[in-house]
Amino acid sequence: MFKGHCFPKSIIIQAVYFKFRFGLSYREIEELMSIRGAKVNHATIQRWVFKFTPLLEKEFRKRRKAVGKRWRMDETYIKVKGKWCYLYRAVDKQGNTIDFLLTNRRKRMSAQSFLIKAIENNGKPELINIDESGSNKHAIRIYNKRSFSKIQIRQRKYLNNIVEQDHRFVKKRIVRCLGFKEFESAKRTLSGIEMVHMIKKDQLISNRKSMFKSFYALAG
């Protein structure tokens, strides 16, 4: 994974972790790495994040703990290149992150794509709580019809407080890192932020004593 790079794995993973954990800008991470004795350009750090995030996420999904069968599904707004995009997310009853998906626009097919992705990665839920969103309700009904499933739909807004509060953590990281200029970069950075957030919530099967050591272990 790290063969051919000028810097060792320890430096690369540390820089990538700083981006996801603290929401720093790339120039701020460059300065922080310099203080630690590693002279690395901010553009190089950005390339590391873009390249290694999918690989780390793939490994994370192999080691992630199972989630509950009663979900809370919702979406929030993320600005990319001055345009509002939609981040679909779901958590279980205990607040564990189930899945997430960034889309260019809010529509029925987007909600359906997210639901299919979440089920493929986590198994079928017994019940999904949503707000008054028609697109989410439609997506679940279509899935039930096409897969002969019986996922219950519950629409109680106050029960979705847990996922709305979870949105705030992710959005806080984004605000601090000065937003996104490209959609694909936004997708990969959000994946890393979500990954570290799940480690913080103890969703990774690991005997490591710290968040960073657990994250580092994903690199093999």
UniProtKB/TrEMBL annotation:
GO biological process, one term: DNA recombination
A GO molecular-function descriptor: DNA binding
Source superkingdom: Bacteria
UniProt entry keywords in alphabetical sequence: DNA recombination, DNA-binding, Transposition
PANTHER family per record: BLL1675 PROTEIN (PTHR35528:SF3)
Domain DDE residues, every copy: 69-202
Name of the protein: IS6 family transposase
Cross-referenced InterPro entries: DDE_dom, IS_Transposase, Transpos_IS6
